[in-house]
Amino acid sequence: MPRDRHLAPVIEHPSPNHDARPAGAAVDMLVLHYTGMTGAAAALARLRDPATKVGAHYLVDEDGAILRLVAEERRAWHAGVACWRGRDDVNAVSIGVEIVNPGHEFGYRPFPEAQIAAVEGLCRDILARHPIPARSVVGHADVAPARKADPGELFPWKRLARAGIGLWPDSTAVRGEMGLSLRAGDHGAPVAEIQRALAEFGYAVPTTGVFDAATTAVVIAFQRHFRPARIDGVVDPETAHIVFRLLALA
Ligand SMILES: [Zn+2]
User: Fold this and answer.
1) pTM score, whole prediction
2) CB burial class (10 A; 0-12, 13-18, 19+) of residue 188?
3) Which of these is catalytic: 12, 62, 98, 238?
4) How far is the CA of 102 from the centre of ligand 1 (A)?
């Protein structure tokens, strides 16, 4: 059985927006994006324009076409200022995949089936080539929560996790702490506890015990990824439960 039986043919569209990975930097992250532009052609032009200094390893169009812009052994410039699990050189250690979608700014819409099937095949192929832990398959918003929302709450993370791509909580049942509700402006030990858990999972959030704007941004990014039914930046019982379930699974 061919290893890449799910993978559509990859079309070469080289981009100049990459450089060498630093010595000793091994790929251990996969970062998924949406393009956030009106169409695939505009996104491709931007990702191949040397003036923009933004690139990615792959672009997946809505019809499922997979374009390779940058070779995996090179550092593509996709994440910008970002941090995950204490590392702020995300581009150095990651593969970046851009998924065509207008995004929240230009008419966010569901990702078509053909596109998701292609993303699934591509990600499985990438994961077969690199030792990437499940918790390090992330969205751009996870690694840059104050700046980014992609690929957003319509992205089918649960489906991908069932295909072996990324982590998903095996239970969303909530035990105890029914009254829990932490939000912007709160402070104290419970806030510190959730900050510590989010940071331990990978998010860049300091354990200050103060539910500040940065913490709200992290909670929103977390909800876009792991609890898309309600994205409000409030740590309710279900959000807290999912944080701790994921930590137990990671
Ligand atoms: Zn992005």
Assistant:
1) 0.95
2) exposed
3) 98
4) 12
